[in-house]
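User: I'll paste a sequence; please echo it back and then give the predicted structure.

Assistant: Echoing your sequence first, then the prediction.
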Amino acid sequence: MDVLIAAVKIAASFLLGAIPFAKVAMIGTGIDITKVGSRNPGFNNVLRVSTRPRAAIALAGDIAKGYVALTLLSAAPSVWWVMGIAAAVGHCWSPFLGWNGGKGVATTVGVLLKLEPWLTLICLPLYPLLRAFGRRMGWKQEGAISSMTTMLLLSTLILAMRGPESGVFAYVMFAIVVIRHLPNIREILGNLGKSNPG
C-alpha cells in the first residue's frame, strides 16, 4: 500500500509539473507561446514576446507548481526528491504540450525551495548577476549559461553539505536542466569555435 501511495503522489507531482503556465499566462492574447520567439513555453519567452506581468505569471506559476507539489503531497524525504524530479520532468515533457515543455529551471527552483530553502536562496542571486554580466560582455546565451551555472553550484552545495542521499537527486535535477539546454550548449560551443578558428 505504501508503494502504491508513493506512486500516486509521484504521478500527481508529474501532472502538477506538467501544467504549462506560460500558456496560461498568454490566455487572451491569441498568441501560442510554443510558436513564437524561441518557441519555449517558459518565462523568458513570454517576456520576449509579451508583457512583464504575463512573464511574472509564467515564472511564479512554474516555481509554485514545483513547491506546491511537495507541499500538498507530504512524503518521506526520498520520495519527496522523486516527486520533485517528477514535477520537473512533467514541466519539461508535458503531456499537455505534446510531450514538449520548458527548460525546467523555474520548476526545479520551486522544488529546491521546498527541499533546501536556505541553500537555494543563497545561490539564486548568482543567476541575475551572471545574466547582467553576460549581457554586458555580449554573451549570446547568457540566460542558458546563468541557469546552468546556478543549478550546478546549487547541486554541488547540496552534495557537499547534505551528502550523496540528497546530492545524487540534486544532480539528477541538474542533468534534466542540462538536457533541456542541449541546443543552447551546441550554440555556445559553435560560437566558441567561430571565435577560436585555430
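Residues 112 and 120 are 6 Å apart (CA to CA). The radius of gyration is 17 Å.
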